Amino acid sequence: MEYITLNNGVKMPQEGYGVFQIPSEECEKCVSDALSVGYRLFDTASAYGNEEGVGATIKKSGIPREKLFITTKLWVQDASYEGAKKAAVDSMKRLGLDYLDLYLIHQPFGDYYGAWRAMEEMYREGSIRAIGVCNFDEARLVDLCANHEIQPAVNQVEIHPFYQQASAIQTMKRYRVQPEAWGPLSEGQRNIFRHRLLSKIAARYQKSTAQIILRWNIQRGVVVIPKTARKERMEENLNIWDFALDRKDMDAIATLDIGHSEIINHYSSSTARALNAMKIHA
């Protein structure tokens, strides 16, 4: 495992385990398996409804807290100054933690300016080691950076071979914001695991297509958080540190970019309406 250093000096594993869409009743087993094969970065969110499962499992593991990197996220309905203060404390209670390694604004909607001010205060107080955002396009990210003292440490966005986000990554690097990929395996879309080009590259390296995809993002300086409920796949996804793609293969994968998401469009009015209407708690 390799680590990257965030803009505030905090070290973050470059690969982690995401628990999106893992039901709470299955989460403990999945996180336990992930811990056993070597994952130390875990990515959850209040909107996922499984923070308790993550927290219970890491507590049972006996692994020292300082060896783990725990990320959770602020949902839209809590995106305000007071809302963020309460939501962060509530997430820590559900996780059974007295501090978070990374706290992210989950969506670029609601009063995220007010939320950011609250997160800056919590960061200064030490209850959060790093703060960042998710799903912020280049304009919103630059605007947030330009109008606040503390820059986001991370922007977690959709990044995979079919949606490569080259321009967004360059903007993040300009502002020293670490890109992190959700859905790094494209959620299996476009038959990605049997894609002809990716499979051909995988055969040359004697690796799986998933390993090639994850390694491609790693070599672009992106943090990845693949999700799977199968232990053997967890092991496979983590086994990407003993090889490197050559320039020719990196350039070949670059040709797969379609330039937009087929999972969710954060630029659409329907997405804004849906996410603002989504209530995750009473």
From TrEMBL:
**Residues holding substrate:** 106
Q: Matching Pfam families, A to Z?
A: Aldo_ket_red
GO MF terms here are: oxidoreductase activity, acting on the CH-OH group of donors, NAD or NADP as acceptor
Q: Site annotated as Lowers pKa of active site Tyr: where?
A: 73
| Domain NADP-dependent oxidoreductase, residue spans | 21-256
Give the signal peptide range. none
* Catalytic site: 48
Q: Which UniProt keywords apply?
A: NADP, Oxidoreductase
Q: Which family does it belong to?
A: Belongs to the aldo/keto reductase family.
Q: What is this protein called?
A: NADP-dependent oxidoreductase domain-containing protein
Q: Which organism is it from?
A: Marvinbryantia formatexigens DSM 14469
